[in-house]
Amino acid sequence: MTFAEKTLDLIDKGQIDEAHKAFICSLNNDNDDMIYSLAEELYSLGFTNMAKQAYEKLLNLYPDADEFRTSLADIAISEGNDDQALEYLSAIKPDSDAYLESLLVAADLYQTQGIFDVSEQKLLKAYQLAPDEPVIQFALAELYYDIKKYREAINFYIKLIKEGITELSQVNLVQRIGISYAEIGKFEQALGYLEQIHPEDMDDDTRFQFAFTHMKLKHYEKALKEFEKLKETSPDYATVYPAIAEIYEQQGKLKEALIALQEGMSVDEFNLQLYFKSALIAEKLGDNELAEKYLIIAIQQDPENATIISELSRLLILEKKHEENIQLLDSYLKDNQVDPLFYWLRGKSYAALENYAKAIDDYKAAMKDLMSSAEFLRDAAQFFREAGLRDLALNCVNEYLKIEHNDVEMAELQEDLLDY
Predict the structure, then answer these.
(1) What φ, ψ does residue 64 adopt, rounded to 5°?
(2) What is the pTM for the complete model shown?
(3) Confidence category of residue 337, pLDDT binned at 50, 70, 90
(4) CB neighbour class for 239 (10 Å; exposed up to 12, middle 13-18, buried from 19)
(5) I need a surface site. Which of 31, 88, 244, 360 has the fewest CB within 10 A?
């Protein structure tokens, strides 16, 4: 038995200290081919430190053997030593037999660093050199999938499918294509691929996408059935609850929608969207108190969320809680977190309280950014007319009618203002 064979045998028996001693003997006594085979085996088993020593010895003996550099770069990446990995890779020249492999390793490194454009460049260079290599096509497909360039990903996945490859690195390519089509809104095509996957082969994300695709195609009963299956098998999969609620809402079953969202809260109490969506449903059900409660919880979770703040403000105005609304918006406007919508909403409450001086200031402040909003212009025109500010009212009416040409009531207001 060679020292290399003894090393692997001892590892298999769990005698790691003795294996390391045998490994040192292998480096000093076995031939280079044996050491190389040992390095490859050690790397595949996860004993990267010993594999690294073996590759380094071989590289010192054969400095032109760039395949050792790519292996050492791989190990450096796994150890988080990116600079060392790049040093190995940069030493490999385009005329090297290992150059193609070095491009793939470099692409993987840059992708893990989040430098996706450089990763793409490396892979496209590799694809240019070996356009028929499935590993390169797959690497490009996965990169594009990860960075949400789904159309590009689909092209490469389909290339592989046409070559008879439906799975690589334990990745189901049919699943990838189905999800990619769904992500770009091509739900019919998505369903065609997702239906090919056996239910037992679906992970939670795929099952969700399968149900979601049915929902987008308005196959509500089928979608609901699939979502319910997912909820049973993975009750902690929080995304399923707003999806179920959306189906019920589309069917006009608002109470059921609210119950689904409340179930989601018990699973994920910090899911902002569950509270926000619940507030909107509660408001539709006429339960403004519950809507206000959920919006307040949502704001506590994300105090800077202008959409939620605005929705709570609108609700407070609807409930005629104008002092509370002013207090809510004051805290944001005083901290220079200026959303023009906040000025308008605060102005509405000041106007309701007949504090016209402050209301006028807020409406004027809102005008700087909301002159393309038909809703604001309509309200502002009527407010300024009531406040006796003809020119401002006329300006808002004129801008409004550029957007909404057929509003008879506002056209009459324009005539009244012109005749004033």
Answers:
(1) -95, 0
(2) 0.74
(3) low
(4) middle
(5) 31
